[in-house]
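Lecture notes, unit on protein representations.

Consider one protein chain, 482 amino acids long.
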Amino acid sequence: MKYPKEIQEIKDLGFDPFAHKFDKSDDLSNVIEKYGKLKPDEKDDKVKLKVAGRLKSVREHGQLYFMDLEDFTGRVQLYVDLNAVSKKENDLVKLLHQGDIVGVEGSVGKTKRGELSIFVKKITILTRSLVPLPKEFFGLKDTETKLRKRYLDMLMNPEVRDMIVKKGKFWNSMRSFLLNKGFVEVETPVLENTTGGADAKPFVTHHNALGIDVYLRISTGELWQKRLMVAGFEKTFEIGRIFRNEGMDPEHAQDYTQMEFYWGYADYNMSMKLVEEMYKYVAKETFGTLKFKIGDFDVDLGKKWEIYDYSDQVKKNTGIDISKAALKDIEKKLKELKIDYEKKGFNIERGIDHLWKYCRKKIAGPGFLVNHPVAVSPLAKRRDDNPNLTERYQVIIAGSEIGNGYSELNDPVDQKARFDEQAKLRAAGDDEAQMADNDFVEALEYGMPPTSGFGVSERLFSFLMNRPIRECQAFPLTRPKE
């Protein structure tokens, strides 16, 4: 194995350019916090620090080298006097460049100009960077390159790293909220014989051991968690990945995280109260505020949440009464509004949904959309006072649906009939219509208590960040580089 000359030079000095470990004693943020108040030209030689990180810049001034060292927590200047280190380290310093990862021992102080610095007594290389980093001032500007080489985007932009940390807080705060409410965290299958829980086109893969085609799930175990309700559980939730083989836009990804909970003996009104409380808790814990700028909307999660009627909103904004309109009327209105839609398998359910999606863009929220027609809610319980409508709600924020919940359908006869209707739609070419799950119907026949379910995806996080969803993922899927 032949190494490049620059690597061999480092090895010849007795250093391993790809070291095994370094015992850090301090994060740079701790150094800044403890010693940031020192006065200019003040030093504390009694302090012995062991820090490590990446060199973001190297500046030579004769026998002095000034280097900016950055770890995950912060950035501090290194002050290297070649006369203060060994001959071997002296030679190493002259070979170091931007991007190298180093370990340092030294004391702390401030320069005459007041720059907090670590005065280096020992330095070693931990990893040699063979490829130059992008210039910090210019950074990565091309969006596709930023997403493809996300590690560089994170490396050059601390706000991207901060966003990833926030996302962790987002899900952990949701998890802690539900655990504190007595919910049990569960895991359900990712590979399924039939997909359930949403209107979406699935990914298909082949299971070699069983010799069958299976689907990647399109919900976080909705029909499985309902089986848990049949089994005697009363409060469950899951946070996990789901997969939908559909289009990409600022609000939609194909591989993303979603949370779903199911609450026995509760209805959608009880669920809405819990969800409003949860959103406020998660926003406050993650971002420290309830007020957000999302696109063109100013959204205050702390204000009174509104209630929006599905049919009223469509009629108000399009003039269409969906309880009476025929398919031809809806198609005519869609053309009039210049709304594109998939012609294959098009039906009145899809038409109604397209009309509503046109209307929602005008609503700032926060609020709940209610009174969905049965035709667009195959898993929701019918309202007692109007069997054509369901006990379903969706959270509306900044012109979009940011969460979906029901009083779950627990009547096996009604569920079987709705699955049959969905099967007819699939046979007619609607790839997003739900698949019939007869095993689930059989489970309902054993009896599922009144239950309310709710799901929210990482779209909520991306909205609160006011960024496209793909930019809020650590490593979104991109096309292979040609």
